[in-house]
Design goal:
alpha/beta; Rossmann fold; 2 domains; two-stranded antiparallel sheet; globular
Length: 262
């Protein structure tokens, strides 16, 4: 009997892979890179510099989870979350729990522990991104990370940690690094008033009045005269980001587009 029970506890590597559940990120390029998305019941870290796409990726995953009826949570350590952008990204706010921790990494980790133990969430995002990007918040709480990993085992929760650098050590099953590759701008036409230093538009306007001034006089007046002109305004639309797997079951990199939600 003991031998039979021991045999049931053994699983091959292929069986373990098949038994894994994933939450799609909502970004096809990343889902292919990660062989399906973020693994449920494990710690996943997304790291990188400011404006590297971390929040956009997290919002995409949250939106994808709420679209399938799951309840999600966002633990906002330093007050960087924006409900307006969250809604613009497609997150169903009726299924969205937002926890603010007033700059305390200890409160944020305690909140994460409480939510994981309570259960009922499809994905919990722990945003530890602080004003000081040179230091990774929560890095010294090794015992806490071990407890979080134990609490996650056997659950269907995706636990996604955002920070400038990895903080959970070897306990994370995935460490995904993001960096910005290229900004995308839209150009729109608009009317504006501008002081023309060249005087060319002013020369044309003065010429319509009878061409009674010499070019030097016209240039002098044109410099003082604000004239309407068609101008092009560049507006930030989004950016292309590069994702690279630093630790995980898959390897490689992928480029994806992040739309600006503002």
């Amino acid at each position: 009997m003991a031998r039979l029970q021991f045999g049931k506890a053994l699983k091959t590597a292929s069986e373990l892979i098949k038994s894994r559940e994933y939450l799609e990120t909502g970004i096809p390029e990343l889902d292919r890179l990660l062989s399906g998305g973020f693994v449920r019941g494990e710690i996943s870290e997304v790291v990188g510099a400011v404006s590297g796409g971390r929040t956009s990726l997290a919002l995409a995953a949250l939106a994808n989870a709420t679209a399938t009826g799951e309840v999600v949570a966002y633990i906002d350590t330093y007050g960087g979350a924006d409900p307006h952008s969250t809604k613009q990204a497609g997150v169903d706010l009726a299924r969205f729990l937002w926890i603010r921790c007033d700059g305390s990494a200890e409160k944020a980790l305690a909140a994460a522990d409480m939510l994981i133990r309570g259960g009922g969430f499809g994905i919990i995002v722990l945003d530890l991104t602080g004003p000081d990007q040179s230091q990774a918040a929560g890095k010294s709480h090794s015992h806490t990370w071990f407890r979080l990993k134990q609490s996650l085992e056997g659950t269907r929760i995706v636990f996604l940690v955002l920070n400038s650098s990895p903080v959970s050590g070897s306990l994370a099953s995935l460490v995904l690094g993001l960096k910005r590759r290229e900004a995308v701008w839209t150009v729109s036409k608009g009317e504006r008033m501008e002081d023309r230093e060249t005087g060319r538009q002013g020369d044309k306007e003065m010429g319509r009045q009878g061409e009674r001034a010499d070019s030097g006089r016209t240039l002098s007046l044109a410099r003082k005269l604000p004239v309407p002109r068609r101008a092009r305004a560049a507006l930030f639309k989004g950016m292309f980001c590069e994702a690279q797997v630093f630790r995980g079951k898959s390897h490689g990199s992928a480029t994806f587009y992040c739309d600006f939600c503002g």
